[in-house]
Amino acid sequence: MRKVIVDCDPGHDDIMAILSLLAHPDEIDVLGFTTVCGNNLMPRVTDNLCRVLSYLNIDKKVACGYDSPLVLDPEPQDAHGESGLDGPILPSSKLKPIELKAVEFIKEMALEHDKITIVALAPLTNIAMFIKTFPELKNKIECITLMGGSRSSGNILKRSEFNFYGDPHSADIVFKSGIPVIMSDIEICAECSTSHKIIDGLKGQGKVHDLCYDILNFFSEYNRKRNVDSSPIFDLVPVMHMLHPELFITRKCQVDIELDGKYTRGMSVVSEGDNCLLIEHLKDNTLYNNYFLEDLNILERNNSGN
Ligand code: RIB
Ligand code: CA
User: Fold this and answer.
1) Pocket of ligand 1 (CB under 6 A)
2) Which atom of ligand 1 is nearest to the CA of 13?
3) DSSP string covering 57-84
4) Are 232 and 223 spatial neighbours (Cβ–Cβ below 8 Å)?
């Protein structure tokens, strides 16, 4: 049983990744969630997560993390709307965050368990501060599997992906930490894109599917307006690699983070080396999306009693 903490900034794609993880309780023990400033500011991303978990009657620990990057200022993104999770209308959450802050929660879980895996779906502020605060616990982290970076593109600047752009100093700390890192970058996310036909087919299939439709219909609007017929659900990729590694081709590489570039802030420079396992290619997009749909069906069946 893999012990997992999810660090996130919900965020439409964060929620999809979380739902897929929660569909495999026999394989993945989600110890809890830590939230961090990224897509939106801390109160909103935390409230977004709690509302979704509460709406689906999922009782998990949520620990609040950093409300700003290590050095730079927060830059909330329009892609997720005013609330950070525009689209679904969700009731107020019955679930409240725990007292422990994110870094302390990760420390407690690292002490309690033999090894933990961190799924990092946002700027890496919480993770970097855990590494800096408790370096003696680095060996308790089996790996950090993250969505972030790019080999040759960018979604915030020409060569910068948002999670690394949002807090480049923290990304630099993570890649220099010596903890095994698995990187799902923009390019692999593009290969894993989900068709708008699949998204539209979610509607009317039950409470979980309707929630996912409302989330993904909003999230895919950007591409629909540009007559692109699919959208990458970015944060879902590291989770699908964890659940179905046979679907992917990977290779070791060296990743260095640009800290000082005016036009390349947070750029991930990929070269020969071994501080990172790059998820390089997807073998079968149809199978990938079928696994995702299977996860939603599992959650729908589990939720049918609620
Ligand atoms: O670049 C994509 C990443 O930025 C995803 O984690 C998305 O949720 C946003 O945080
Ligand atoms: Ca995210």
Assistant:
1) 9, 11, 13-14, 38-39, 121-122, 147, 155, 161-163, 234-235
2) 8
3) T----EEE--SS-SSS-----GGG-TTS
4) no
Q: Do the Cβ atoms of 188 and 282 come closer than 8 Å? A: yes
At residue 306, the pLDDT reads 65
| Closest atom of ligand 1 relative to the 161 alpha carbon | 1
pLDDT digits (tens, 9 = 90+) for 227-253: 999 999 999 999 999 999 999 999 999
**Pick from 111, 119, 106: nearest CA to 62:** 106
- Residues comprising the chain, all counted: 306
Tell me the pLDDT tens digit for each residue of 192-218: 999 999 999 999 999 999 999 999 999
Q: Rounded to 5 degrees, what angle do the CA atoms 234, 2, 248 make? A: 40
121, 147 contact by CB (below 8 A): yes
Query: What whole-number distance in Å separates Cα of residue 145 and Cα of residue 147?
Result: 7
Closest ligand 1 atom, CA of 14? 8
